[in-house]
Specification:
about 260 residues; alpha+beta; Creatine Amidinohydrolase; 4-stranded antiparallel β-sheet; 15 strands; about 25% helix; binds cobalt (II) ion
Amino acid sequence: MAIIIKSNEEIKLMQIAGDVVARTHELIEKYAKPGVTTKELDTIAADYIRSRGAIASFLGYEGAFGAGKYPGSVCLSINEEVIHGIPSLRKLKDGDILSVDIGAYINGYHGDAARTLCIGNVSEEDRKLVEVTKQSFFEGIKMAKEGNHLYEISAAIEAYVVSHGFSIVRDYVGHGVGKNLHEAPEIPNYRVPRRGPKLQRGMVLAIEPMVNIGTWEVEVLDDLWTVVTCDGKKSAHYENTIAITDGEPEILTMVH
Ligand code: MF3
Ligand code: CO
């Protein structure tokens, strides 16, 4: 599948989707405290996204393995849960880490971003996991320049993560984003022995490292959605939607 190049007008529309996602993240961060349930956070996100005239991208998304439609508005994954955690009556507790993944659709385009939040007092190791995961995204996008090749981003992410003693999830990858939530290309967060497509201005990419403390291996729970680490050790996620320009990449899912 070819990578769809967006015009400047389309990128302006994607900035709006990105702003909805970024501000939803800010709101969730305020409410994500010990005692709150992930369902309550999902409702807060859903209400805000709707108030902006947008639609939650993930609600009703058709899953793999016959999982059916995703039942939440956002994904909320605690501790050893890597991604696709379903909002529930489970309460956050002191020392948890919570991965929050949010997508919003407005004016015909999606924005997609994830953060991992520290709930109360988090161990030194877990705090480092969260920090390294975030920074690996920024190391990756240093390569996100017109004329470079896509897998230079992938290699930079992996090099940074591995240098800090953590592992990279291999079963899930980043992706192009636009009129569809998932477009070409797939964007691994690990080195592959090829260069990949050449980056061009107007490409819009969701770069999303998922980083584990222990093994990189993951499995899907019986709910057919929640992805967990095989060793039960913690995992973090960080994602932004970016646009390739003729200079620095533009991050669409951060508040400017
Ligand atoms: N940010 C995730 C992704 O890019 C979210 C998909 S969750 C789903 O791929 F529920 F929509 F599947
Ligand atoms: Co994504």
